[in-house]
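Exercise 7 asks you to align residues with tokens for two separate proteins.
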Amino acid sequence: MNELPDYEPRQVPEGHYDFELKKPPEKRRRGEGEKSFISVMFVFRVTGGDMENERQHTESFVPWDERYGQILAALGGKKDASGKCHLSDSVDDIVGRGFEADIVHEPDKDDPKKKWARIANIKSLDDDVPF
């Protein structure tokens, strides 16, 4: 079993897992004034890999992050004419949907002693094809 980093005992170890959306995504405003932007927070139930028990993984994405569109597509989002993926107006419909992906630990840009668990290599459960 993978060891958890000392600085974050709740962090999901690196590995391949199943993710299930636990609640509707939540939009959050970040920054202030002209530098403000919206991020979207997702809360997932994580199972599989070498873990004995399920864990929770929370991660926020900005709309220009490629993984954001991949997660939306894996949760049933539809692409528009420009190729961007969007969810329906009723995000409650996607709670309980899931996908497979890896958790990787990326270094913090401001503190190299810290690492953050991030979702990578997202694969839809519907078509078995990675994005």
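Second protein for Exercise 7:
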Amino acid sequence: MNRLDMAARLQNYFNNPIYYTGIDFNDSIQDGLDEVVAFTGCVYNSATIPFQANLTYYNLRSLLPDYLGVIAIFNNVIKRWLYPTSLRKINQDRIDWECVGGTPYYFSAVNHRFVAIYRKPLVSAYGNMFVFYRATAPLLNDQTSIPIPDDHLTALENYSITDLLEQQQEWTKGTERFQAYQQDLESLRVYMRNKRNPDRMMSLR
């Protein structure tokens, strides 16, 4: 389904060309997609990033404009997945871990921007990492396919209906739709979590 199809569904639901324009529908669909994607992680992307000599913390938010959160990292030099871990566990291994050089075997998400690599390469042109990550929603046009599984498109539809009802101060109707939207959002979130975990088994061993 693309944006034009979703707008047609909304037009059919409201059946009132006076209150809403095509711009209203398109803006609401985009806002809804941004929120659904951010809350559920239903859009994946990947990128090749060079390892930097003596660098521990990588600002993935600045390196990847559509970055939301890291899923897995592959060290292409040794052909192995980096093990996801916590900073606490790395600190237990070595208190001075930020200063330790060597082959990268571990990564830890520090916050919504930075990922720490342990150990860090000490030589220039060491090689590349492949980063798999949750991405932000694309900017839609009429023909852009909406990147939500077909069985869960009602999440976006119910968001837009809620949003448009509230614009007209239809608070009671909007609340009912918002509850449906929350249920759809949780269903999609669980679906994506269950779908993602088997893909990460090799990186979690």
